[in-house]
Recover the amino acids of this structure.
């Protein structure tokens, strides 16, 4: 966690290589009859679990089951908040006004917190999902407006609750300026531009498919603070946490490969947030 | 509040007449573009506000606005939990299984609690809404199953959180047996049978429309612990709280008449739950 | 199809064995990001496809894709109408009143018809889904009320549109009395009582898992008009159509086994409804 | 209706003043328990009724009631299609992809058509609602993409079905190019720029509140083909139809004033679409 008053622990080429990193993944993304991914396998792999809160996925029963699995594995629980968009899985921009989006975010955090409380668990962080995540990472009117909404909601709920965002994005700057603890996130299976941005999914090569290559890149990222880019150079990328996926058998295998490579390289996998048990 | 280890304060003919009672009403029952009732007028009348939590009404922005109004008036805030039934306003029985209904109840309590927390407020009690309220008041398989779900959810969330239910119903017995504080509720505008049950809405005369008559009945109820019944007798009815309505101008006027009559008769109107400010 | 003025073609022990039967299955039961079953494989197996219409599953894009697949395979298209219950997949009874349920049924039929029309397809029949299917098969107040709603909707929409229901149920009687063409349905993988009813899923042995046994039973059903029951006797069961499942690889394999056994026994598989191409 | 092969009847200063115009209004915008506006009064005022189809408002029972009222008054029925956004009343842009939006539009048209068919009515036209209406009026990537989706859906459903859009917008050009009959719409209570665009609602004076002034402007518009603008000039505006509102008592009064002024000035109010009775 990069708190507003301390230096980032992992960013910046030239500093000593980090030896601790978090692995996070999206879980609890079924809804009612529908399941998505193998949550038990994913949760056994990561240190932080982003739990869907009902607006893009995650009915209350699914949420409760996911929280129980996180408790069993001692994995930190994050509120994975989204636009209200069940039909679009939260992947579509919704032009909510600032106050209504702040309300939606609070509603979702609270709903997950209620389920956690009943099960002896707690929320350790918040991570915006899908289109909301991407919108607030962008340096434009919509991004600023929705970033304010998200930060207002989290700040009012708990000014000490960490928020996860895209490494290098204006959202992290805004969160730091608001005094909210921030967690810079890198993506295991995504290609980076020389500027440290993600290559757009519309470009060829944006998504990496070779598990060994991905694992090796992440070891490099954690140990050196930088990753190779699409033009062959390297670029510094903050990585308090690395996002892996679990929505297909191949994705789970890749996540496990990243985990094994990191621990094999002496990197400690540790959640930035407190454990899932209610304090 | 009738806690499980103390005697009811208001029930039982023969005891001294109660001089304190709570007035509650449903609020925050708009959704997005749609408004319902005059929440500000209703909240100015009652001592406890049942706030819709999104499953039958109440989007997050409406919830936040309602919580703010309750804070301004110092009125206790209740989570008005419902079946997931926006199209039916929670007035339709939904045959949820026990675990999923418990999850739905927790989700709603948590969502309102999240909004309350952000605004410096807190939830003082839980009141099931509509079809859920009626289902758990009934002494049958569905009623028992859904009562267990509701009580399991509330008990896991907070075993000290009062729950409001129909005076004389098996739900209150089940809640007491589960150790949850209970609040017995009477209805200002409903006729009672000689057995102390509500006259079914399908019967003529089930709903009373004369504000003066209703107000007088409530004074009688609070001072004597009993109300006139449809056959001319009187029957003892527990009334820790009296439910009034606010979804039409006439309803608000009736609620105000009840309030004025009670205070004019020296009855103190006081919420059973702590005030809305977070402790 | 059993039209109201002609004798059933397949029911009744003692008549010549039927040599034609329909095979139907539920398809299009994903929603947005979520998929369910292998629709292409299922549609390649059956003669009639029950397409979810958005109330228990089936967003418009999924509906369009499913209709296209049915067109490619020349499989008849049915509107698989449900209670409004996305979170419960339409498996929960919802106590809708008669007029609102009739409206919901019309809305769903129309929505699918709109998509069909745009794609050059048409709806060949209606089949109630899940809890609605079971409710209207029951001889009680709820069953009668919801059967009236379903039949009113279909009859107003098109009095010549066949409706699929449980063989031997009061719903089929009511549909016949209303003049709607009816299709009696048997279930390939369900055990039957000596009275010709389905063994409740709460009983052991209610669901059959052996594909060969299931296939053999269906050949017997179509050729003799009867199936073995749980007590070793046999019972006559109408079967204008046989329902198979496709929501798991095992289910698809069983459906295929039923198909192969029937065609191997000289039974012609043929939809009761016209083909999917708009006339 | 401006068909692609004939000249507009009402646009262009210098031509003879039109003596026929349509008046349209949004109706059926309640949902379940919630009502909005006085549909009976509005429908008695206009010649075309835009009926909500369930995505921004309008449950099936409300839709059926609204269609019945339109039938009683002989008012043409339009499908008022929207983004899937019940919580935002369809007033929020939703970044749907082209195919899914086309599916959503088809679904809504079909759903209303199904209800119409059951009641002996028919759909006379389609009008996009709210944010969708505004999005497709804009000359940008999103506008073009969503215009294609809307036109693809309507064209596949019925290439002869008129579509209503903002007078002077690129959407009307695209619709004409696609061969769809178009209806250019003016807004009774909105101020116009010298370029013939609507003054943004964010500007002061964007919405006119004086019923007499509004009525007089509309008489001028229909008779001269132009309206006064905010800088005192006049501008030509196409107006096959004039949109009035009915969601408040004041709005209904203004709509009635427009109607009375137009008929008083010898203008014939006539729907561009066939009447609501199924042909």
């Amino acid at each position: 966690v990069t708190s507003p008053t301390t230096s980032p622990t992992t960013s910046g080429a030239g500093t000593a290589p980090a030896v601790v990193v978090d692995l996070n993944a999206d879980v609890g993304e079924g809804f009612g009859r529908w399941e998505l991914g193998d949550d038990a396998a994913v949760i056994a792999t990561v240190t932080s679990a982003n739990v869907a809160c009902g607006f893009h996925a995650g009915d209350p029963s699914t949420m409760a089951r996911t929280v129980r699995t996180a408790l069993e594995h001692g994995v930190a629980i994050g509120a994975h908040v989204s636009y209200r968009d069940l039909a679009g899985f939260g992947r579509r921009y919704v032009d909510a006004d600032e106050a209504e989006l702040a309300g939606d975010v609070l509603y979702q955090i609270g709903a997950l917190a209620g389920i956690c409380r009943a099960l002896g668990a707690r929320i350790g962080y918040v991570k915006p999902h899908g289109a909301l995540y991407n919108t607030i990472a962008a340096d434009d009117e919509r991004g600023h407006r929705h970033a304010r909404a998200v930060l207002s909601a989290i700040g009012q709920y708990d000014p000490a609750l960490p928020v996860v965002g895209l490494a290098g994005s204006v959202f992290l700057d805004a969160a730091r300026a608001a005094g909210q603890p921030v967690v810079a996130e890198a993506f295991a299976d995504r290609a980076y531009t020389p500027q440290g941005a993600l290559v757009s999914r519309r470009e060829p090569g944006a998504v990496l498919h070779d598990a060994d290559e991905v694992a090796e890149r992440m070891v490099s990222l954690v140990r050196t603070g930088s990753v190779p880019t699409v033009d062959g150079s390297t670029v510094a990328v903050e990585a308090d946490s690395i996002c892996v996926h679990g929505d297909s058998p191949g994705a789970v295998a890749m996540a496990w490969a990243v985990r094994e490579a990191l621990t094999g390289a002496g990197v400690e996998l540790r959640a930035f947030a407190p454990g899932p048990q209610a304090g």
Notes: Confidence is low (pLDDT under 50) at residues 2-18 of chain B.
